[in-house]
Model the fold of this input.
Amino acid sequence: MADVISPQPSRETDRSAERLKRIRDGLSSRHAREKRFRAYGLAAIGAALAFVAILFVMILSKGLPAFTQATMTLDVFFDPAIIKVEPKPVPQQGQSPAEFRRATLDWERQVTMVNWNRVVETAIKNAAPDMEVDTRQALSIVETNERFLLRDRFVADPGLLGKTIPVDMLGSANADNWLKGNIDRSLPDAQQQLSAPARALADKLLEEGKMRFAFASHIFTNVDSRSAPASAGLAGAFVGSLYMMLVVIVLAVPIGVASAVYLEEFAPKNRLTDLIEVNINNLAAVPSIVFGLLGAAVFINYFRLPLSAPLVGGLVLTLMTLPTIIIATRSALRAVPPSLRQAALGLGASRTQTVFHHVLPVTFPGILTATIIGVAQALGETAPLLLIGMNAFVAAVPATPLDQSTALPVQIYLWQGNENRNFFEARTSAAIIVLLGLMITLNAIAIFLRTRLERRS
Amino acid sequence: MNKDTVMEPNAMQLPSERIVERSDLYSIKSSTVRTPDETPLPTRVKAREVSVFYGAKQALFDVSIDVPERAVTAFIGPSGCGKSTFLRCLNRMNDTIEGCRVTGRIELDGADVYDPQLDVVELRARVGMVFQKPNPFPKSIFENVAYGPRIHGLARNKTELEEIVVGSLKKASLFEEVKDRLHEPGTGLSGGQQQRLCIARAIAVSPEVILMDEPCSALDPIATAKIEELIDELRANYTIVIVTHSMQQAARVSQRTAFFHLGILVEEGPTETIFTGPREKRTQDYITGRFG
Done:
């Protein structure tokens, strides 16, 4: 009896033990695979973070010093022996406004003809009386446009004649580079930008505290300059970018959102809408320089809009950003559960009411994010702008979107390509920091608004 | 000037007239309501040879049925038998599905529902719907219920709107539970409460017919019992059509039952008859659980 029954359960236990053994055998390789995959993931994230860290460290270490520049405070004597001009004209009885204007202009011309370099040179030499430097050497450590600033100061206040006042003067780019050590200080004279006496002068002024590194606010307030590299700034490019962003926001957002809403909520699903959808998806993948060509052909050649204008740049960037906004908005709309639409429709809401009362409010954070990402992408775009002439050298802040201008990324491209600044000056990195700062600000706004809106709904 | 004074009260009175008229209707008729076994109730919705196609595939074959007034009609049948499809024909929710085509004739109070002249917005105001999964709007409880009356212009002013909202919530037996948090989001309620909120939202528009598409399938037994109780109460004032997977539910809440199978309306009649002595063998098999 016992013999008959016993084989049965033992086979059972054998089988279940066998099964358990197989599962256990497989376990170790399964765990190993899991660990391996996790390690790959960690390695990938680690590599990505490392690259980001390297990028930021390099940009910050190169760019941050550019936000301070060698500045000297000199006692400037408005020497009547050099500044030989008549007193500034004042309106006189019986003089017409035109005559007064002419007299003023004549006087200003006289002031401009004054050898202001001489005034600057004297001030420098007085600051370091024991240094043996000639005129050229003395002037080579000061920014070339400082003489015009002195003139402007005098035009504004002719009473300065014969007085001595302390004036902050920007050091020249070469002096700045020398003092910051951007140029190898051990290089022989022939390879240095400044002559030996000029270098010694700069060193001495720094040592004596007459030269210091001050915050270079002119990076934000000045426009680009070629003759006075140390005082070149981003103001023109910044305003140009701002105008383009405005154009993009005003055009791309309503057009993009409206097309997305129409295509997703109202358009019948047929061949034509399929074709449109495929085309929009393809447009998002078109290289941006192609949009530049399109812009040059359509807006400039056909519509005769001005070259280098932020308006045209904005239009080109709008074309480029539209697919991004449309696709992102559509996916936000698609993510709305159909039950929400059914609830509204079931109550007798019309399609438009359903969309505007229920669907859009839910998708608003998504649309907003899409918009800001699109605008940030447009802000950082360079290639299409080169083709519509925005890589021109523009030394003015554009007053309207139709004025010639450049843009932040294009300004970086221009500076980076300038042989004078390429290696020695950190200006490019400083511009990159400004651009990145702007981008990070935009993204931070997007995240802030999204979380706020999501919390509210 | 004169015109204005004449026009305005008229325009203002219109919605309230409708409300008064309807509530009068209910109060008179609800006293005369009887069980369907005694006297046949007047037909509210009439369907004749309704077929539905999804693209090339036919989902419903020649369904003809009369839905009586102020009674609960249950549609039962196995999954995919077309009962929900047919329900969605009654307020033309199938319009929103791409490639869906309906043939045949559906009448609401003798008027063709699929008449191109008929405004679907008006139809859906008259035929409300409650869905399988509770789907409150991501807004406050108050706004959820107020939305329907607001878009249809049913309330003359804020006080009236509040009356409608409170009344609807009371009718949906939800008011006591939410009266202190009317302005909190409707999505924060429990599943059963959400479904009752959806019912309150549907009845706030004072529809004549309420379609319910498996309203309890996402709920636990206690919430289900509450909804069933509510359906039984609503029967006095509304024509209710309910799709359900639970035969016990059909037996509990409905007066008439229709059994669908493979897109065909197999049998339809008083609930008692369907459950105790069905004519068709397929009905018998389904009810006794032989397939499903």
User: Anything to note?
Assistant: The first strand of chain A starts at residue 68 and ends at 77. The mean pLDDT of chain A is 88. DSSP finds 18 helices and three strands in chain A.
